[in-house]
Amino acid sequence: MPQLPAQQRLHAMIDTLRQQIAQQPDGSCRQPRFDAQLFRCKGTRLADYLQELQHNAAQLAASDSDASRRQWLAQKVLDQIAALQRECSSQQLRVVRERPRRDPLQPKRDEYRGYETRLLAMLQQREQHLAQAETLSVQQQLMREVEILQERLARCRAALHKLEIAAQP
């Protein structure tokens, strides 16, 4: 029995997916990728999901059941193909996103660098105001603020230095 054009297109789409998945490094991740209603498979590799898709496509081609069951299965196969295509196209992003953090101190380091940047900006602003200050009382107030900011900046840099030392093996 010759294949219908729709069946040929379906097989071509599945073959293309098979090739895309074969080009992925491993395709594994730490948890199932898709909703349980879309795939019964609980695997972590794209090949696991492709296998279920192929099984469903074969079941669709050989199905002698009623039209509503065939329509439901056809829609499910199309949804599975679309989901696998999206997953293949975003695989490059997933590898980066799922890579475990190597440096547990990085968030704290980023936080301290943010403080340092803000302190430097505040210090620069106060020094500019000090240079433009006209009265002695304003100058004295700004000098105290500059000293306080310099002390805070020194503490911040000391904390950064401690983090750098802690990060070294």
From TrEMBL:
Pfam families: PriC. Keywords: Coiled coil. Gene3D superfamilies: 1.20.1270.340. InterPro entries: PriC, PriC_sf. Residues 139-166 form a coiled coil. The keyword Coiled coil applies. This is Prephenate dehydrogenase.
